[in-house]
Structures are given as structure tokens and as C-alpha cells.
Design a protein that fits this description.
With 80 residues, the chain is of the alpha+beta class. It is built from 3 helices and 4 strands. It has a 4-stranded mixed beta sheet, with helices on one face. β1 and β2 form a beta hairpin. α1 packs antiparallel against α3. The N and C termini lie far apart (32 Å). InterPro entries: HPr-like, HPr-like_sf.
Length: 80
């Protein structure tokens, strides 16, 4: 499975929600609705944190978890 497919699907899934969805990788914060940002950040084997805020945050977290899991990407949902 190519990383490109993962990036496109992550971005498309995030774009369905009005919530802010931000991926933290090390000290970088990336808006997952930005395909370009994902391309420069999403490299294999790294652990990511996903920060989701907004009116549909619960649905967004569930959908994003499923996409990350589908591509075996290690992501931790952060709930503030």
C-alpha cells in the first residue's frame, strides 16, 4: 500500500468534518486537511498524535482512527 493513498484518504476524510484536525509529529503540527503538509510529515514508523477540536470531534476521531489503522499508521488520539 503506498503512502500516497493513505495521505489522500486521510485528507479527504478530515475534510468531511468541520472540526479542526491537527497531526502532531515530533514538534511539528500539521493540518491534516492539507495534502501538502501530510506529504512532508507522514513518513513510516513514526508515532503521531491527533488533536481534534470542534462540534463533530467525536465522529471525526472515530473516522480518523479507522483511516490511520487501515494504513497501519500509529496514531494516538489526544482528548483535551
Amino acid at each position: 500500500m503506498s503512502n500516497n493513498a493513505a495521505i489522500v484518504e486521510i485528507s479527504q476524510t478530515a475534510s468531511k468534518f468541520t472540526s479542526s484536525i491537527v497531526l502532531q509529529a515530533d514538534s511539528k503540527y500539521i493540518d491534516v486537511k492539507s495534502i501538502l503538509g501530510l506529504f512532508t510529515t507522514l513518513v513510516g514508523g513514526q508515532a503521531y498524535e491527533l488533536h481534534v477540536h470542534g462540534p463533530d470531534a467525536e465522529e471525526a476521531k472515530k473516522a480518523m482512527s479507522e483511516v490511520f489503522a487501515k494504513y497501519n499508521l500509529n496514531v494516538k488520539m489526544i482528548s483535551e
